[in-house]
Amino acid sequence: MLMNRQLLKRTRNNMIAVFACLIVLIPVYVVIVNSLKDSAGARTMGAALPTSLHFENFITVIERGKLVQSFANSMLYATGATLLSTIVASLAAYVLSRNRTPLNRFIYFFIVMGIAMPLNFFTLTKIMQVTYLINTQMGMIILYAATQIPFNVFLIYGFVDAIPRELDEAAIIDGCGPVGLFFSIIFPLLTPVIVTAGLLSFVGIWSDFLLPLYYLNNSAYWPMTLAVYNFFGQFQQDWNLVSADIVLTVLPVLVIYLFGQRFILSGLTSGAVKG
Q1: What does the radius of gyration of the chain's CA atoms come to, in whole angstroms?
Q2: Phi/psi class of residue 135: alpha, beta or left (left: φ > 0; alpha: ψ in -120 to 50)?
Q3: Is residue 209 within 8 Å of 77, Cβ to Cβ?
Q4: Is 114 exposed, middle or buried (0-12, 13-18, 19+ CB in 10 A)?
Q5: SS (H, E, C) the chain
């Protein structure tokens, strides 16, 4: 009787998981299929397979949508902000976790509040104008990094607490300074959580639409999200081209996500073996 209940529960959970996967994968399938059709075949955005493959849709999108420049901009913003936010967040999380004074606990909770607090675009615009960062690529990198730091600190803070303090003491006895201690001893041990934080930051920055819409007036600095929005406005009747544009926008994130997942699993396995 107990075995039957467990089998029914497992079957139910598997069916729920399959249903959830279908909800996610069906729109992806529809977009990919229609990106390979001609204009007439993709007009209804149906799920039927194309009668002939039109790979020239992707070439047309790259040429007309100016995706090469926007792709470079997205890579610059996502990579630069991810590196900056993860390094700053790991340094802050290490110091706050190792020195849990009342002041540091207040600073930690103050930083973590940024996860739930909404952005005040009016005040932020004034700050960007005063610092001459508005409508600049460096300004976008700094802005994106600032938005990712609260969650990254929250994520890394608990991981640092699991690293034995004896490692710090042994490194100090061996003559290691604070900077050398962190980057030589602690930082390599943080690899799994740093990759996780970096992966989530990269995906979030790559798919963001609002910040560049508000703070980038020059189309030469637009990321992929704004390029897709502009392309859709020009070719909204050609759903095959719009679908191809979406596929090209999502593809880099998918590749990086799959690579990151493998890296996280290998890092966790390596850490378990060493432990």
Answers
A1: 23
A2: left
A3: no
A4: middle
A5: CHHHHHHHHHHHHHHHHHHHHHHHHHHHHHHHHHHCCCCCCCCCCCCCCCCCCCCHHHHHHHHHCCHHHHHHHHHHHHHHHHHHHHHHHHHHHHHHHHCCCHHHHHHHHHHHHHHCCCCCHHHHHHHHHHCCCCCCHHHHHHHHHHHHHHHHHHHHHHHHHCCCHHHHHHHHHCCCCHHHHHHHHHHHHCHHHHHHHHHHHHHHHHCCCHHHHHHCCCHHHCCHHHHHHHHHHHCCCCHHHHHHHHHHHHHHHHHHHHHHHHHHHHHHHHHHHHC
Are 225 and 204 in contact by the 8 Å Cβ rule? The answer is no
Phi, psi of 68 (to 5 degrees): -65, -45
Over residues 72-88, the pLDDT tens digits come to 999 999 999 999 999 99
Q: Which two tokens stand for residue 255?
A: 């590749």
Cβ pair 231, 61 in contact under 8 A: yes
Q: Is the pLDDT of residue 169 over 70?
A: yes
The angle formed by the CA atoms of residues 115, 118 and 119, to the nearest 5 degrees, is 110
**Residue of 244, 212, 208, 227 whose CA lies nearest to 66:** 227
pLDDT digits (tens, 9 = 90+) for 192-231: 888 888 888 998 999 898 899 989 988 889 998 888 888 7
221 neighbors 137 (Cβ within 8 angstroms)? yes
Provide the whole-model pTM: 0.81
| Tokens matching residue 212 | 């560049």
For residue 266, the model assigns a pLDDT of 47
pLDDT of 259 above 80: no
Q: Which two tokens stand for residue 132?
A: 């001459």
**Structure-token pair, residue 129:** 């104008």
